[in-house]
Amino acid sequence: LKLQFLYFIGKKMLNGLKQCSKLRRMATSLAVDNRSCEKYFMMMDELRFLYSPHGLKDRAGLCIDVTEELFEVLFSSNNAAEGLNIIDSINNTMCLLLDPAEAVRNVHPCSIYRGTASSAFQTVYSALSEINTSRRLYNVIADITKESSFATLSPIQKQNATLLRAEMDGSGAYLDQASRSRIAYLSAEQERLSHDLTTASEDENDVLNNLLDTRHSLAATLGRESYASWVMENTLVGTPQNAWKFLNKLSEVHRQKAENELKLLISLKSKVFNKPNASTITDYEHKELANIYKTRKYGAVLNKLSEYLSVGNAWRGLQHLCKKLFDITMKPEVCMEEWERYHPSVQKYVLYESNGAVLGTIYADLLQRPDKMQGAGHFTIQLGTTLHTDVLDEIEVAYPSGGQQKPIVIFTCNAKGGEGNMEWESVLLSPDELATLFHEFGHALHTLFGQQEYQNLCGTRSSLDFVEIFSQMFEYFARDHRVLQEFAWHHKTGEPIPSDLVGQLRESEDCFKGLDTVDQLILSGADLSFHGPRPMTFTTLSGDSEICTPESVIPSLLQHHTPINATLNALRQSYSVQHMSNYPAAYYSYAYSKVIAASLWAKHFEENPWCAEGGRAVRTLMGLGASMKPKDMLATALSETDACEMLNNLDLRLM
Questions:
Q1: Which of these, 132, 137, 155, 295, could form a disulfide with 299 (CB 3.0-4.6 Å)?
Q2: What is the arithmetic mean of pLDDT over 510-538?
């Protein structure tokens, strides 16, 4: 969880130093973990907070106490570097409760655990919400970023201070009380309407319009031209105008292929729907006809492929990838504590560097069950960072030996193996599920590799259009026959996967690549229009702006990019849960990052997927976390001097 706690710092500050704080902390720690006398108040290793259903709930109050004491130390400090260390310690303290609580309430099989984790999450989050935006904290960060103080900082400290200041500015902490109150109201209203949109039926257009108005008002209160321009600050693409240029270039490159594919589907429509005079198709028919075509031509192939793609094989493939590319060994931990193996199918792996040093830990929770979050993803339990031990010593909080916090993640997917089946070897994945597994593993490695001096700069804390590069690049490994032949063996005979089957898989994925790309840019364009300036507009292929409405934007975009006719189905697609609730004004990121991922693959792995030099370059890039601007990190990895020029000249045919 990327906790933007700075937004909530404010009133109801501290109640003074607690008497006997060290004794109280020791007693509490012993109460929640009587296995040892270790006093570190969270103890993430071995998932010790799971020793009891109330483990996280017991720690929630202690987490708030520690945070309050850290704020007292912060407001008595006059040193810029020390101030950054204290703020980072506050951030880490909150995340060490909220991140595991978020994981437990999504994946734990026991409803009591899930309930107490939700309670712990709400307790800590509510405490932060009560504190609200703080002018006092804003003044501290403003002082740190003043020229005289800023000049004394190291490059990594400057990057951290810059991001902290941007977050505070973005939350409106510098505004008057009335404006800050309005921002708080609009933020809450935005969350409510986002939820309502996913359950709306007949009045969905009203809900959508209210949501867009709320977001526009929020951006205007913060002094931004639009919600999109606000969200795109500090991203690779930079501005909505650049995003539009990218989408229109993408359309020009893939237009001819999309038109040829459309002719194929119109011909199929004439036969399947008995409409010999058909001249076009609707957006709804597009999906249906494409599925019919793929099933008829490739259905048997895809079913055959699954016989080689057991969960066990897939995991061995990821282990092999780690070793060959990054010289990282993933070793299973056979002896696990009872609470660690919170479900019989969960397995624990420790990742080791070539010199034997521990990189981090992954808990693999890969099989489907009804009490678990659907889909795939990874939950950070803790990020890898160097703890600010001088700060923790001042408030008498113990910490791991050496002061190094190693990353821990829970890696989850929902492979369908039949209820009660716990065997990875007998559960088979579809090719799409394999690609998803590799995609999410890319995110997990980004968290493990991205260990920085400041927790605020670790892991996947950069912009979405940067973070998605690595996960999309890992999908290429799941489609390369040279990679698959290393681990994809038939689950019964042990026969390696035939290369011609892999070739047919790639052929099936490419057969409607043009129309699939158009789909992405249509939804991305609608997203940009929804969150752009008022009156609502979209950008044409010629670069002109045309006025539109939420109801007309998708038909207008389809008219400019393809002859497909829009229906209400297309409008509903445009405000799915993912990109209207979770990623507003960011849907372009998937296409944008995919092109960059293709460039990375072409540069480093197309000739040799096991290129060690390429592995080192990618690991270096992931290891930077958010310690530099996204463009600077990307230019470094691709050995480019001008990141802007590089992004403007990406080969869009690679997508």
A1: 295
A2: 89
